[in-house]
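Researcher: Here's a chain I'd like modeled. Treat it as a single chain, no partners, no ligands.
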Amino acid sequence: MSNSSKYDLTDFTILDATNILEYATSRFAAIWIACDRSHVPRSPAYKASFIWHLQWEADSFVFPYINICTVLNIHLTMPDLLHSIISRFTCLQTRNITGKQFYAEFFVHCSPHDPELSSTHRVVLKYAHDWWKGRFDTLGFPLPSLDVNEVLDMMVDHFEQLPMGAMLLPSPAVASQVDDDPLLNQILAVKARIQHLSDSLERMLQEKTMMAAAAASTMSQLEGPMDELEEALLTSCWP
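Model: Modeled as a single isolated chain. Structure tokens:
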């Protein structure tokens, strides 16, 4: 899954950040649902292993990209569910809550079924490194250090599994980037993405129009034979 070339972080846009955090939210939602349904005894060892694995999720799919956005002066929002989870990670890291409290609050206050945090629509069938689907507390699944290219590949695979996934996929590389002006570069990236979506919609409408015209032409050609068939049927019924 990993690409051999290194990712140039100067190419990172607000769209990349938004999509990656959306993907991270989906993973957390899938984790909550799977572990909430699990009947594995919640021993201290299980809880400690769960927190360790969940920390890997945050370190792999959230914190690096929040840091990149800070460095590039990108101001973004995150889904409510992810905001709730990361706020509790912050409390854990600053020792305002214990690991035991973090575990309890995750399942009480970070449910993807909560109407205010609703995220079940983000969940897909397949995830890379889906440690939560097995006995992670005893089997010890290997969790790798992921680079940006690997995360972007996973994110693309995630959106391809969603009905409207293509609408959130990154647009082609943006030309005319301006040195030392991150805000302007983000505006250019968003403008390019909007133009890309507009062009895609225009092509789709053209294709639909052509299909409708072809269907109308086919129906018109069938009118004569259908009339003849109807007349023949009527004649055969009335000698």
